[in-house]
Amino acid sequence: MVSFALSFRTRWLVLLGLSSTLLACAEPMRDPAPMLPVRPLHTVAIAPIAPIAPIAPVVPDAPPAPSAPPAEPMPYSAAVAARFPDPVGGLPTPAFAPGHPGFTTNAEIQTLLRSLVRDGRDDRATIRLLHLDTSQTGVPIEALLFTRLADTDAVAVAKSNRPTVMLVGQQHGDEPAGSEALLVVAQELARGKLEGLLDHINVVLLPRANPDGARDSNRLTASGIDMNRDHLLLKTPEAQAQAQLNREYHPAVVVDLHEYSVVGRYMQKFAAVQKFDALVQYAMTANLPPFITKASEEWFRQPLLASLKAEGLTSEWYYTTSTDLNDKNVSMGGVQPDTARNVNGLRNAVSFLIETRGAGIGRLHLKRRVFTHITAVTSILQSTATRGADLAKLRAFVEQDVASQACQGEMVVEAAATPSEYVLQMLDPQTGADKPLNVAWDSALELRKVKKRLRPCGYWLSSDQTEAVMRLRGLGVTVQQLDDDGDLRAEAYREISRESGVRQDVRGTISDGGAVVRVKVQTVPALMEVKAGGYYVPLEQPLANLVVAAMEPDTQSSFVASGIVTSVDAQARVMSRPAIQMTVLP
Predict the structure, then answer these.
(1) Are 572 and 489 in contact (CB under 8 A)?
(2) Under CATH, to which class is 31-49+72-404 assigned?
(3) Which H, E and C letters describe 32-92, residue by residue?
(4) CA angle, corner 122, sides to 119 and 125, nearest 5?
(5) CA dist., res. 512 & res. 8, Å (int)
(6) Cβ atoms of residues 292 and 393 within 8 Å
């Protein structure tokens, strides 16, 4: 362990050219540097993936968006409420306009986004409206691009020497504060205190990722799927829209804004109320590059916590608990490769989840919740601007390092959090005083390796697996098609058993739109005769760890589990580099 730690610090220093103070894990954190002022994937023949479509007209909510109901009586005492005073000043979103009864509607968001669009004249940044797709009920899913680059084409932005930050709000429709906060951030980037950061970074801002859920005050999409568990499988147009932004703009930093339950099962299980203004966690999943974790902690999370504290806001690691009232375990966020936070980490981005205390309490403390998100996003934007050169070095090294691991060493097929104990601060629902609780705590800071295998050179897919190929390409993965017949030295999967089940995470059953197949397999060495028209998915590419998450069949997140790959016989692990002629799919 000691030799690995020394090697890790040495590589961090040599490859990124950073100060040795930053590298010493056991030493105090140095002061941060000064802050600087898809189209749906249907089962069709393989075709080029469509670019971002032209701007669509404003489409009114259909049916007209209902206002949020009046605030319900407080679910706790006035003493608790007194611990969360509103910040001073106004917030320029429709929801905070005098007399507005609810949250900003879909139509109001469309109007506001269009009001910010401009070209780069008069030494101002260019702001483009990006029409990504429509929701399942036909509402446009739209984002804004902010950049000072002369060429605002997605390829030019992705290849520029400025890191791009992608900001996402309201994946869960009943968590409105993130959306409201990003509308404020958008205006500050356009003509306020954040505009100067565009000298150093680009920003892609998607304020409302789930417009159907927002209209209906529903966590899920219209099809009943939790879209924040859909970023590997890409079943929904809403998740596909975010995948498109990732493919085209290649963000170095991604921030996903949510809200967490304040009372509900916490009151039932612990007779306590949630305390913290913000819960924070970065990507934590199997095969995540360790340098991404280190940068997330030292370059981003530490300054973020300081920014929250400076504003009088409290914070903690993100945690949750299951919906089973008899299960009193508390877990850090899930470690499966399905959420935006973890999938974006496997894309080699610094990927953050920020949750404010708001789910289930209507408009109560809304201004403070929105202000908390604004504070967190501002800190991350500033850290990105300050660390732009370092991020470029980090991304280049990590992408090369991930690709170079093909055909050698071990990889983790499945990981789990580590059981431990933790003193978690909550609030007494009557007095409002701190209420420390000793809880069983599943920590994601160090993962247990449940299942490991040798890392292959890549994966073979039979010619009839076009749906899987479409999903992989939707993720941005490079896929090649075999031009000729040939032989592959491989490991085939031998199915031992299977059963039908449902996807689970630390909260309980995942709303996934159907059952999954749980298979147990053995890998068997094989010399395979393969036909032209089949597919090869190489691991010599930056998204190799995302490929692993999709292709190893015996996990609940895999393409086999969800029926995207139709059988374990339709895929294999390729154990030496193929000599067959192949063509990269466009």
Answers:
(1) no
(2) alpha beta
(3) CCCCCCCCCCCCCCCCCCCCCECCCCCCCCCCCCCCCCCCCCCCCCHHHHCCCCCCCCCCC
(4) 50
(5) 39
(6) no
Strands 508-509 and 434-454: unpaired
Nearest to 470 by CA among 42, 26, 31: 42
149-186 per-position pLDDT tens digit? 999 999 999 999 999 999 999 999 999 999 999 999 99
Note whether 545 and 287 are within 8 A (CB). yes
Identity of the residue numbered 279 = L
CA dihedral in degrees (498, 499, 502, 506; nearest 10)? -70
Alpha-carbon distances, residue 403 vs 117, 408, 538 (angstroms): 38, 11, 9
- Tens of pLDDT, residue by residue over 528-556, are 999 999 999 999 999 999 999 999 999 99
pTM of the model: 0.92
Write out pLDDT tens, residues 192-201: 999 999 999 9
Q: In what order do the strands lie in the sheet with 126-134?
A: 126-134, 140-147, 202-206, 164-169, 253-261, 350-359, 278-282, 315-317
The residues near 110 (Cβ < 8 Å, ≥ 6 apart) are 58, 59, 140, 142
Report the 10 Å Cβ neighbour count for 305: 18
Mean per-residue pLDDT of the chain: 90
CA nearest to 340, candidates 552, 520, 138, 178: 178
- CATH 3.40.630.10 in the chain, residue ranges: 31-49+72-404
Does residue 576 contact residue 457 with C-beta atoms inside 8 Å? yes
Which is more confidently placed, 473 or 17? Answer: 473
- Quick one: tokens of 379? 């800190």
pLDDT tier at 73, thresholds 50, 70, 90? confident
The conformation of residue 577, written as its DSSP 8-state character, comes to: -
> Residue 299 corresponds to which tokens in the numbers above?
């370059």
Over residues 382-436, the pLDDT tens digits come to 999 999 999 999 999 999 999 999 999 999 999 999 999 999 999 999 999 999 9
Q: Give the type of residue at 343.
A: V
Number of other residues whose CB lies within 10 A of the CB of residue 577 = 14
Determine the Cα–Cα distance for residues 210 and 237; give it in Å rounded to an integer: 10
